[in-house]
Each structure stands twice: as C-alpha cells, then as structure tokens.
Amino acid sequence: MKKIQMVDLSGQYQEIKDQVNSSITQILETSAFINGPEVHAFQKELETYLGVKHVIPCANGTDALQIAMMGLGLKPGDEVITADFTFAATVEVIALLQLTPVLVDVYPDTFNINIEALEKAITPKTKAIVPVHLFGQCANMDAILALAEKHNLFVIEDNAQAIGAKYLSKNGKKSMAGSMGHVGATSFFPSKNLGCYGDGGAIFTNDDDLAHIIRGIVNHGMYERYHHDVVGVNSRLDSIQAAVLRAKLPKLDGYCEARRNAARAYSRAFKNQQHIVTPVTVNNCEGICDVCDCHVFHQYTLKITNGKRDALAKYLNENDIPCGVYYPIPLHKQKAYVDGRYREEDFPVTNQLVKEVISLPMHTELDEEQINHITKMVIGFVNG
After folding, report:
1. pTM here?
2. Cα 255 from chain centre
3. What is the tens place of the pLDDT at every residue in 242-270?
4. Which parts of the chain are beta strand (E)?
C-alpha cells in the first residue's frame, strides 16, 4: 500500500509535470515574474470557469478577504457577521480593519452559518455578511442574499474551501460558489482543490466599479503609475503560481469528482455506524448522489459521538494515518477574539462540534486499498 497522506500533491503533480515544468522554464527565461502573461491568462480562464465578469488575482486568500472588505468601503466600527466555526482568517481580517466581528453559530449537519442566528445578529451597525462555504459546499445563499437585500448589506463569500462547487437556488438556477454575493474571495494554498505551489488567492465580482477599486487596492492604491489614489496593499499572484494554476484549472472538475468518489467510498464504509456521523450535502440527497456537484469535499469530516475523537486522532497518527481536527477551538474562545458580547448559550453547535469533528485524508490520489485501511482502523477503534 502507498504511504497515506493527508493531501498527495506529489502524486497529482505527475499528471501535469510536463506542462508545469515547461511553463516555469519559460517564465525563468523571459523573466516575466510579476504580472506576466501567465497571470493575465489565468485571470481570464478563471473568469470563464466561474462565470463572473472580473477576477482579480492576489497574494493569498486572507489578502483576498481583506481587500474585498477594503473595496466595499467598510469603516471602523461597522459590524460584519460571520461563522464561529471556521478558520481564523475570516475573522482576522475583520479585526485588522478595525471592523467589529460578530460571530454566530452554525448548523450541526452542513457546518455552515445558521440563518436564524445570522438574522438575530443583524443590528443597525451591521454592514456585511461573510458566509464561509465550509469544507466544500455553499452556505444557504438564497436566505443570505434575501437578508442582505432586506437590510441593505454586502455579502462577501469566503470561498477558500469550495471552489468548483455549484449552488442550486430555489428558482432552479445553478451558480458557482463565490459568484453570488457582491464579491467573493478564494485561496490557492497548495492543499486547496485548486492549489498552487506557494501562496495565492483571488477576488471575484460582477460589479465593474468594485473591480476597478480592487485592482487599485492590490497595487498600492495605484490606477496610474506613482499616482496613489487610495490606501492600498501589495498583493499579487506571481507568474509561476499562475502557471501552476493554469495547468490545474482545466482538471478542477475532475479533481472534485475524484474527491467525491473518495467521499462516497468513505461514507459507504461508515454507513450504519452508531457513533460515526458522515457528511451530508446541502441538497439533502441520500448520501452523495451520482450527479453531485454541490460538494467538492475539500475536507471529509466525520463527527465521532461517543467521546473518542481525541483518542482516535492520536491512534490514527500513531498508525501513520494523518488526520486533522478542523477546528479544535471556537473563534469566540480564541484569545484574540474574546468579547464580552458573546454568550456560551449562543454557540451550542460550535461548542459541540469542536469536541466531535475529525477530518480524514482527502485528495485526488486516494485509492481503494488506502480507503479500506483507513475506514477499518477508524471503525475498529471507535467501536473498541
């Protein structure tokens, strides 16, 4: 059996090796390291893939979120609502910009932001909602967009984990994750479904004026060289990373399907296990349906309900099966974001999830032998 990895980037590289190596060599020979042809070509190709008017590449996913908020003109003291159960980058940029983060609970099945809690958190100071499309599927965008319209709020989609996923609206329209709000942001960190070989990110929007503002912000606030019209940052996707992403983008749908197939195999093996809760999809299909496109399984996350999660993680790691706990501490309990406004009774789901969730190896190169071994080890320990 091949060595089990949480993400097998080396195996994935073999299929795109010739294209990646050739493109990087050309960049080295032409010295077009910054804003070169590869960056512009990738931008256009991603616009086409997502069905959006504007993609603005940047240095990483955290920058993408920060720049999106800067572009919308949010001011210190403005409240921004997001999920308590997610990676810290989402709330980090809110705090960095001296905005006021407002954390709310999530649903126990999809792990995405709870709409009732979101609506309850809206105040006259609220200016934006940041739904996080966690682990590979979209939050309830119909409800979020309706609330945003009702209260005149911006919607900033954190699409760091769900690029390639599709969202089926109540009206029957399918949209790509990240394309529905006023602006979307994503990360191209190497382990993402669409990942580069370093850091990278991008911002998406269909708003021409917002796109123009953001293009200046990513380049020191310049729209004309040495004319600094707004306060900006230095945040660019370099040409080498763009070349890697160009090689991967045409394969993204295939990568996502390979992940779904691995997820299907996991879920079949764990079916009817009393203490193991498998992931559900937002469309409430029975399992992961044959035509699934709503979940791209950036992570395959179980809930272990008999109190053995921490012991299971230790056992798997000791037996050369990598795993992850995403996330072990609620954001409202992190030292940097503790706030007297938060009450524990407002976060019953997140407070329980941090004790139960565990993510198993998930990538495009997982094979049947590896999945069988992983699932047997998990089932044996949980039931032992």
Report:
1. 0.97
2. 15
3. 999 999 999 999 999 999 999 999 999 99
4. 54-58, 79-83, 100-104, 126-130, 154-158, 166-168, 174-176, 183-187, 201-205, 222-224, 227-228, 276-277, 300-304, 357-360
Q: Which of 219, 200, 212 is nearest to 39 (CA)?
A: 200
Angle between helices 89-96 and 61-71 (to 10 degrees): 40
Structural domains of the chain in order of their starting residue, each with its CATH number: 9-250 (3.40.640.10), 252-382 (3.90.1150.10)
Nearest to 105 by CA among 85, 131, 81, 127: 85
- Which CA distances in Å does 97 have to 187, 234, 241? 19, 16, 27
Token duo for residue 362: 């998930």
Q: Across-strand partners of 90?
A: none
| 81 φ, ψ (degrees, to nearest 5) | -95, 135
Cα distance between residue 217 and residue 166, in whole Å: 29
| Distances in whole angstroms, Cα of residue 284 to Cα of each of 18, 173, 295, 296 | 41, 17, 11, 15
pLDDT digit string (tens) for 321-361?
A: 999 999 999 999 999 999 999 999 999 999 999 999 999 99
